[in-house]
Request: fold
Amino acid sequence: MVEGLSVSLTQAGPMAVAASFVVPPGQTLALVGPSGAGKSSILKAIAGLLPAAGTVQVGATCWHTGAAGLPAWQRRAGLVLQGGGLFPHLDALANVMIAQTRPDRDAAAALLAAMQMDGAVIRRRPAQLSGGEQMRVALARALARAPEVLLLDEPFAAVDPPVRRALVALVASVRQQSAAPMIIVTHDLGEAAGIADLAAFLDGGRVVEQGAAGRVLADPASRLNRWLQGG
Reply:
């Protein structure tokens, strides 16, 4: 049974962060805000890649408490970094297999096929793939861990608009297939509107506003809404 995610983190450096939120099972939180607001740092702290103080709780399991926690490899987090973060010396199939607890070529190929990647393309290395293809491999790799939490850091950045639209639809499909709570970092909440149930606006490393995505966006006085409108 997939449980919800509860996060309360503080961090003094390299960027000051103060964030608390809850993501129920099967729901998606969009972390939005200006560049340098601490969005990516929060994802990496949840995944165990950055030191932080506070708590990260997944259901009844504590991933992090105080200043200590489970090492990153013990946290079942499906993390998609900006640009995909693929291993350049491995082909697409091997990039997915490396995330599996027990390497299974057929299961990895099936995950890539679900991301619309099959045939000869799965034997290509990242340098031979387009930006959109790299992100599809990264999504397949994230799912290969059977994650309890999905963490997506700007998955639509650095690709052309048609590819962005296809990736938005693909992430929405992943959302429907996985009950794991998801956090997606984005500069464009409009793009994530078909995915996100909740929204949290970060400014200066602090969550200054959060709530149901539709409600927050519909409120003209919302700081998140004003920022999205360029105000």
